[in-house]
Amino acid sequence: MLGILVEYFTKRPVSQTYAGELDFMPFNILIHLNKMRGVIEVICVFIVLTACTAQYPRSSPLASIQSLDDFYIKGKEDTEKSKELMLFLTFSGGGTRAAAFSYGVLEVLSDTKISVNGKERRLLDEVDAISSVSGGSFTAAYFGLFGDRIFEDYESKFLKYNVQSGLLKNMLSPLNWPKLWSLYYDRSDLAADYYDELLFEKNTFKGFTRLGCPLIAINATDAALGSQFTFIGSQFAPICTDLSVFPVSRAVAASSAVPGAFSSIILKNYAGTCDYQLPEWAGKALKGKTTSTRQYYYARNLKAYHDVENYRYIHLFDGGISDNLGIRTIINATLPTGNVWKKLKEVNLEETEHLAIIVVNSRKEKDISFAKKDYSVPIIDTLGIASSVPLDHYSFETMEILRDNMARWRKSISEGRCKEMKSSAVTEGKNELAATKDCKAKTYLIEVSFDAIENEAERNYLKDLPTSFHLEPEDVDRLRKAARQILQESDVFHALIESLK
């Protein structure tokens, strides 16, 4: 092509054309390009081949489903863990701000000592599950993979590192452009590769099976169903996909994939290729033989994956769209049975006496400065309103649902424990009243949110921090300090500690 252009403009074959004759013409660049033809052709071939071959890592099919209900089971293989305490954490979304805020909570749990079976243990070692969203997923995943190492290098590797700048440089790097031109590799795939290099060291979910590791439930949103998608075994069973070999970085990328800024993370649906069958409870719920409409919608979403023709690929975005607090994962765990005591008995956890949930909420304050103006709301503010208003109301309703559920769970566990203790006392010929004296269960809902900060200036300052992946080091320290102070001053948290002494 270059030769044709040179011959056209010089009216002579390329072999007879001299650059010196064309120095006064703009076409001399064609001569130089022609000399570099080989190099340019190699570069073009590289770009084309890279664009054609670049694709995100495919999820792997699984032939046999071993366990569907793993939420309550994980972490109890550590025999030193308390059988009487069930402790869940939820980390909200909100970029580095959420990651730092949740990190501060882990610091407090690491410093808090309790007595278990006559031995002193950290409360952090008693955590059974962490359900996380977006920015909070970085902290949850790193702790799940590396345990106490999080207190050594997470601060420098992520919290106080300009991750946003690194992402932008990767996006703008010419070396990555060929991959981004591919139909099967996009911005979130590039981000996942970057997170692997920065934090997760190419670990898969198999890395969460280390002894004593709590269940790490990373949450995203299924764009087609509009429902929460959680990276746990019971969510992967209906799509016959092997979670153990799925990259942690891709789950975190999905959990934090804000629509527009990032593309969707894609999973192939292998439903129908394994031995998974829709559970009996789901079949009954779909036929209307249940009093719980939430159970019906949960069952409907499970069945939807069986329609492989319409749900051939699962597109995942930021988990905050469906639940910015990560709470619904816990609530959904009891939906199949409708009875938490029955669930605990199924997984041999009927010794549970204390159920505690620590909700870490780093909600951002809405910008309402437009309310002082007498002209139409600017487009940027309009987009903010469209996303933040439903999110705030949805989060409020989710917390209310959790409070209602915890009241029911306390009653269910208490009744179950008392009945078991009474039956055991009768069998052993013991006094029933004495045997059932301490049979009632206790629940603790502990909220760690900016609203608990008494200092108005500090509260507003932290609420106004951006939800990006870069904060000033001093802001990271302020967030950690605030989280520690809020948790340490919580009356409910102190009640939990006292009950475990």
Work out the number of β strands: 10
Helix run count: 20
The coarse overall form would be globular
Query: How far is the first residue's CA from the last residue's CA?
Result: 82 Å
| Oligomeric status | single chain
Low-confidence stretches: 1-15, 17-27, 67-76
Strand content: 5-15%
Class of secondary structure makeup = alpha/beta
SSE topology string: HHHEHEEEHHHHHEEHHEHHEHHEHHEHHH
What's the overall average pLDDT, rounded?
82
Major β-sheet profile:
8 strands, mixed
Q: If you compute it from the alpha carbons, what radius of gyration comes out, rounded to the nearest whole angstrom? A: 28 Å
Descriptive account of the structure:
There is one protein chain. The chain has 501 residues and is α/β, with parallel strands linked by helices. 46% of the residues lie in helices and 12% in strands. The chain has helices at 2-10, 28-35, 37-53, 95-111, 135-146, 150-159, 163-172, 177-180, 187-200, 233-236, 248-255, 280-286, 293-304, 328-333, 340-346, 379-428, 432-435, 456-463, 473-488, 491-499; strands at residues 85-91, 113-116, 119-122, 127-133, 215-222, 227-231, 265-268, 313-318, 354-361, 442-449. The strands form two sheets. Strands 1, 4, 5, 6, 7, 8, 9 and 10 form an eight-stranded mixed β-sheet that branches. Strands 2-3 form a two-stranded antiparallel sheet. The longest helix has 50 residues, at 379-428.
